[in-house]
Amino acid sequence: EVQLQQSGAELVRPGTSVKLSCKVSGDTITAYYMHFVKQRPGQGLEWIGRIDPEDDSTKYAEKFKNKATLTADTSSNTAYLKLSSLTSEDTATYFCTTVWTNIGTSPYVMDAWGQGASVTVSS
Amino acid sequence: DIVMTQAPLSVSVTPGESASISCRSSKSLLHSNGITYVYWYLQKPGKSPQLLIYRMSNLASGVPDRFSGSGSETDFTLKISRVEAEDVGIYYCGQLLENPWTFGGGTKLELK
After folding, report:
1. What is the pLDDT of residues B8-20, one digit of tens each?
2. Distance from CA of B81 to the nearest CA of A (A)
3. Distance (Å, rounded) from C-alpha B51 to C-alpha B25?
4. Contacting residues of A for B94, CB less than 8 Å apart
């Protein structure tokens, strides 16, 4: 069973950057698209983008194109989300997630979510 | 981007009764392969979202069959029969048809 383990909470200064990690266990990361989702306090879910660790191709939501950078390290089975030029608007919990189809006589869809990484931007 | 609109914002249910949550998409979520790419999630307080229903009407692994999903190409419903205390949280619909994935604003389920 695929599990995702995220890095810990971060307290960062405005204007700086932060890099969050998401480690995959139970399978090789290259078998999955890794997605990242933002959730501001008391708010809903917002998709940031995804990376295909097989070829490092990425897709981003328009509003995150100058904010987020997704990378992956296949040797450590880990995906990364870097957030730059941080402001108070970036204070949120960031989740990594993936979804896949179990192929078999009766295919079914499964997903996995990391536990979330809290980022607080404050001076 | 596809806009997902959920209703109501909150619902208060007596344990043992049923609850329904609606979700509407701004574009058809029916793919040419015949699959409708709407998903339902429950986020319990302080936890990550958990998958309840995938591809409009399929129950995710380990989810009680009190949960069911239905709908058309743009209008969807999550029904919870015989609501229990463990069902409390925020429910989100989401479309995984195309990037960017988008989600409804959430429906908070509380017990009376």
Report:
1. 999 999 999 999 9
2. 23
3. 19
4. 45
